[in-house]
Specification:
Elements lengths: L11 H4 L20 H7 L4 H8 L3 H8 L6 H10 L9 E2 L5 E2 L4
Antiparallel strand pairs: 1-2
Helix pairs in contact: 3-4, 3-5
Length: 103
């Protein structure tokens, strides 16, 4: 469900978190690790938008969100495009389950 936007792209009421001084939603202690999809949607980005910012293919993002583990360089590029650290994202593991360390 996408929340109604009244022209202001602040989503603190949707995420339950106040933005930090940069306008981004810093990971708090209650949600320090989130999936790539959660991080992407928190910034209201489509897969195509994120792919353009990270300079990777949209199908790569779709595959990661479906459970394929990313290459380290891809994980770093995606995290940078989301203004996050790679360890702040819960990447899929080789067994198909999410893993906070990306392995």
């Amino acid at each position: 469900m996408i929340p109604y936007l009244d022209g202001n792209v602040n989503s603190w009421w949707y995420t339950g978190r106040e933005p930090d001084t940069t306008g981004r939603y810093a990971a708090g202690s209650d949600d320090a690790v989130k999936t790539l999809r959660d991080a992407r949607l928190a910034l209201f980005l489509s897969q195509q938008d994120l792919a353009g910012k990270a300079k990777i293919g949209r199908s790569t993002i779709a595959a990661i969100e479906a459970g394929t583990p990313p290459r380290l360089s891809t994980a770093r590029a995606l995290a940078a495009a989301l203004a996050m650290k790679p360890n702040d994202i819960d990447w899929p593991a080789k067994d198909g389950k999410a893993s906070a360390d990306g392995n």
